[in-house]
């Protein structure tokens, strides 16, 4: 069974009491590694017998997992968190159906979706920390101040940051996905399709494409006050009409940040290096940086 089939198939079988228990487990995870069964009963406001039935059922659906020693307790897994977010989005009228997978990565799963009005959308499930908590804590500045980091917190924070960036970018008509909704670790955005730049083997005129990408980086820097923070050939989408889009914004840096120029140069180094290697160009990163900063007319 594919992941999208699992999500949609099991989701339809859940009952309101199941979601109350999932929410209770989530609430307990704020202060516990595993939510004690007593807290699940308290937060769900369900009879203990009902809770015991529901946790057994949810464990069978692979939405939670439990321990029995030194106490009985439960914790959400990714699917359980997925279902809480999906349920909230459906109830809010932001999402009606989940479609096929369009991308499974180390830190996100991406699907097509439909709204209640039949509009196609992209649904992104952040999976920060799925590979390495230590690595993600090291590179993601917005979690560096927390001593104890859970995958739940990391993923929710990444979704919040990305949605915040997309809202800012949308106000200046940047070439980025349109933000539609966000709940927990899930972001719903306007539909787009295309190919990652890394998978583009040939371009008729690579230099004009590079210039357009750099101009977009410059516009975002001055008009939105943002730097992508992790820009590379993996998050530049070449669309079917030949245009492009910059995606994956949870690590954005504000232009006012003291280290903003460092991150801007790093983004430009990655993109410039890719174009030089893939398309045999001889671009100089420092000249490109000076152009973006406005201290040079061209590169």
Write a brief caption for the model.
The chain is an alpha+beta fold and 299 residues long.
Keywords:
299 residues, alpha+beta, Arc Repressor Mutant, subunit A, Phosphorylase Kinase, domain 1, Transferase(Phosphotransferase), domain 1, 5-stranded antiparallel beta sheet, 3-stranded antiparallel beta sheet, 10 helices, 13 strands
Largest sheet: 5 strands, antiparallel
What is the topology, as strand order, of the major beta sheet?
A: 4-5-6-8-7
Mean pLDDT score, rounded? 92
* Strand residue percentage: 15-25%
3D shape: elongated
Overall number of strands = 13
Classify the secondary structure makeup into a structural class. alpha+beta
Supply the number of structural domains: 3
Helix content: 40-55%
CATH class of the largest domain: Mainly Alpha
**Remind me, CATH topology of the largest domain?**
Transferase(Phosphotransferase), domain 1
Layout of strands and helices, then pairs:
Blueprint: H1 3-11, H2 16-28, E1 35-36, H3 37-44, H4 48-60, E2 64-67, E3 73-76, H5 78-91, E4 97-104, E5 108-114, E6 120-126, H6 133-139, H7 151-171, E7 179-183, E8 186-190, E9 194-196, H8 206-224, E10 226-227, E11 236-239, E12 244-246, E13 253-254, H9 260-279, H10 285-293
Helix pairs in contact: 2-3, 2-4, 2-5, 8-9, 8-10, 9-10
Can you offer a commentary on this structure?
A 5-stranded antiparallel beta sheet has the order 4-5-6-8-7, sandwiched between helices. Helix 2 (16-28) packs across helix 4 (48-60), helix 8 packs across helix 10 (285-293) and helix 9 (260-279) packs across helix 10 (285-293). A hairpin with a 4-residue loop joins strand 11 (236-239) and strand 12. The protein is an alpha+beta fold. Helix content is 44%, strand content 19%. The chain folds into 3 domains: 3-80, Arc Repressor Mutant, subunit A (Orthogonal Bundle), CATH 1.10.10; 94-190, Phosphorylase Kinase, domain 1; 196-293, Orthogonal Bundle (Transferase(Phosphotransferase), domain 1), CATH 1.10.510. It has helices spanning 3-11, 16-28, 37-44, 48-60, 78-91, 133-139, 151-171, 206-224, 260-279, 285-293; strands at 35-36, 64-67, 73-76, 97-104, 108-114, 120-126, 179-183, 186-190, 194-196, 226-227, 236-239, 244-246, 253-254.
